[in-house]
Design a protein that fits this description.
279 residues, mainly alpha
Length: 279
């Protein structure tokens, strides 16, 4: 059975993929759907959803179109999630690979650095970093990447330590290949599947972190995001429920979709584990 067939047998993963594809399509088409942008005041404030033509989700505290904010906010939330995850992988994968392959002092040094970052709660460290660097989209993305890489390093280290004892690595040594070439061309390609699964879950976590920071007022005030929308509406949550409900629902569905995809990827990459779990 091929990878995609194994993935398709997980209905939750397929539903998650459809949901994520819809969110990505909406984000890409945001300038076409609402070319005026999310900041334009279009009506009086606090219009209730589904009561005014052209404003399906009503208006916010300043009379801005909630639907436009939701659509344009999808671009920011997805961008932060994706870029911060890539940055975290660029830090964690090389560090974990070197630690796991060489061991000794390299492993000790890398793991002590990793443990230092893990002793500080992720959210608290992200708040401190954003406060120091000033709340901009770049600083938020960097802060999320810095707090996200330690689990990646530990995962890659464990995978590399397991793989370096395999016969194909011994054969590569006998063939005269250098350690770096063996690590890059032989070991890391065989550790890709768990990294991909973790990356899908990291994007979901990054979206939640960005939303939490924006909710606390540490988001970029010039960028519309789902977290910003919820944070701006927290003072009127009782009188204008929809201002928090719709961006919160968007976050919920996107994070759920990414988690379902991660579960499906895990099943597809590890069919033997899936069969054991069902028996």
């Amino acid at each position: 059975m091929t990878f995609w067939k194994r993935f398709a047998t997980n209905r939750g993963a397929v539903i998650g993929l459809i949901l994520l594809a819809a969110v990505i399509a909406i984000a890409l088409l945001a300038p076409v759907i609402y070319p005026g942008g999310p900041w334009k005041m279009v009506q009086r404030p606090f219009l209730v959803p589904f009561t005014t033509d052209g404003l399906p989700l009503g208006t916010d505290t300043l009379g801005r179109n909630v639907a436009a904010g939701l659509v344009h906010g999808a671009r920011v939330s997805l961008l932060v999630g994706l870029v911060s995850t890539v940055m975290a992988l660029l830090i964690g994968v090389p560090l974990g690979a070197l630690a796991g392959f060489y061991g000794g002092y390299v492993d000790e040094g890398a793991m002590r650095i990793t443990e230092f970052f893990q002793t500080i709660p992720n959210f608290a460290l992200a708040i401190v970093l954003v406060a120091i660097l000033q709340p901009t989209l770049g600083s938020i993305t960097l802060a999320i990447a810095i707090v996200s890489w330690p689990p990646v390093a530990r995962l890659v280290r464990a995978e590399v330590m397991s793989l370096k004892r395999r016969e194909f690595v011994d054969a590569a040594h006998l063939a005269g290949l250098s350690n770096i070439r063996i690590l890059v061309s032989e070991v890391l390609p065989n550790a890709v599947s768990p990294i991909i699964v973790m990356a899908s879950l990291m994007v979901a976590t990054a979206i939640l972190l960005e939303s939490s920071l924006s909710f606390l007022g540490l988001g970029d005030p010039n960028i519309m995001s789902w977290g910003y929308m919820i944070g701006a509406a927290r003072t009127v949550i009782r009188s204008a429920w929809w201002l928090s409900f719709f961006p919160g629902l968007a976050i919920l569905l996107t994070v759920l979709a990414l988690n379902l995809i991660g579960e499906g990827l895990n099943d597809a990459f590890n069919p033997h584990l899936t069969k054991k779990g069902r028996t």
